[in-house]
Amino acid sequence: LLARVLAGKSLDPLIFLASSLFILGAGMASLRLHSLIVSLIYRVGKKNWSPAVYTSFLQLIRTRNKSAFIMVFLVLTVSFGLFNTTVARTILANAEKNIDYMQGADIVVTEYWKNNVAYLQIDPNAKVTFTEPDFGKYGQIKGMKSLAKVFRSSTASVQSGSKALSCDFMGIDTKTFGETTDLDAKYLKYDFRDYLNVLSRNSNAVLLSSNFRDKQGLKVGDTITYSLSGGYFSGTLTAKVYGFFDYWPSYNPEKITILADESVQTSDNYMIVAHLSTIQEAVGIFPYEIWIDMDGDTDGFYDFANEEGLKITKLGDASQMKEDITVEPLFQGTNGILTMSFITILLICAIGYVIYWMLSIRSRELLFGIFRAMGMTRGEIIKMLACEQAFTGLFGIAFGLITGWIASVLYVPIIQIAYSAADRALPLELITKGTDVARLIVIIFIMFAACMGVLIRQVYGMKISQALKLGED
User: Is the dihedral of CA 303, 306, 310, 316 positive or negative?
Assistant: First the structure.
C-alpha cells in the first residue's frame, strides 16, 4: 500500500470498502446485542413496569425482526458520521503537526551569502570564503519573538567500527534554539529543554538519535568521531555522547526508498546534534538557516524582507504550508466525499425512520383503539411510542458510536498513509474532538425530534373510535 501511494498511484478503494463492510457487519452484530439487552431489561423489571412501558417492551421483543432494518440504518448513520469525521480531522491535524515538526519554526530562511566560488574557475585550489550577512537586522522583524541560527547538513558521517555511517547533522546554539522551537513532551523521554541543558554543559558534547544506541550499541559517555563535508567545507571532530533522543525538530527517524520492483524499503535515519560554535571553529563559518518564531501571523517577516531587499535562497513558512494543505484537491475531495456520504446516509436514515414508524403506527391503529378502550390515555400511548423509540434510537446511537470508534482505530491509520506517506515523521494520533461527537449527536437528535413530531401528529390525527367500530364489524 505504501509503495502504491509513493509511486503516485491512487489509494486502493477497497480500503474504504473494507471499513464500510466492517461497520455493516458490526451493525448486524449489534442487533443480537440489542435483543439480548432489551429482553434482560424487560425481565428485570416486568413486575414493576407501567402498562405503557410494559407494552412497549413486548412490542420491541415481538417485532424485533421488523425493526432490525431501521436499527442497522441507525448504527450505520452514527458509525459513518463518527468515522468520516475522525478520518477528516485526523488527516488534517496530523498533516499540520508534521509540518510544524519538520519545519521546526514558523519561518525558516537562508539568506544569500557573498562568496568567492566563481574564483575557483581561475584557481581551483583557492580557499572558498563566505561573507556572513548581518544577523542582528532580523531583530527588527515586526512580531518576531525569537531567532536561532541552525546549521544543517545531510552529508555527515560517523565512524562505526570499520564503516562510516551516514547521518544528518544539526549545529545549534542551545539557548536561542530552545527559545525558538519546541517539541511535545510525549515524543521524548524527558522535557525538550532538559536535553538542551545537558548539551550546554560541554562544548564538545553531542546528542544522538536513539538508533545510535539501539542499533550501533553506543551509550552515554562514549566518544565518537564524526566528519562533516559539503561542497566547500570539510572537517573531522571528536565528541562525547551526552544523551539520546527519539524525535527532534526536523528529524525523520526513517528513510523510505522505493526499489526497482516497486517494493518499499525503510532504513534508519541517524542524526547528530552539536554546538554551532564548535562546528564553526572546526570547519569555518558557512551558510546557515535562520529559524524565526513569530507572534501570530508571518506578515511581518515578508514586510521586513521587502524593505531590506533580502536575497533568499531558501524559505519555509509553516502557516503557508498549512494553508496549502487545506486547498489541496486531495484533501478537499476527501472532505467533500466524506461529507456528502454522511449527508446522504442521514437523509436516507431519516426518511426510512419516519416511513417505518408511520407504517408501524398505521398497522397498530386498531391496537391503539383497544388500549384506549381499556383506559389507557393518549398521553400513555405517546409514552409507549417514545419508550420504543428510545430503546431503538438511543441504543442505535450508542452502538453506532462504539462501532465508529473501533472502525476509526482499525482503518484510519491505513487511510492516513495516502495523505502523508513521504513526509510522515511523527506517530499517527487518532483525533476525535468532543465537539464533533456532540455535533453528530445533536444532528441525530434533531432527526429524532422531527420524526417524533410527525408521529405525535399522526397519533393525534387518528380516529380511534372508528377503528373500534371497524373491529366490532
Answer: positive
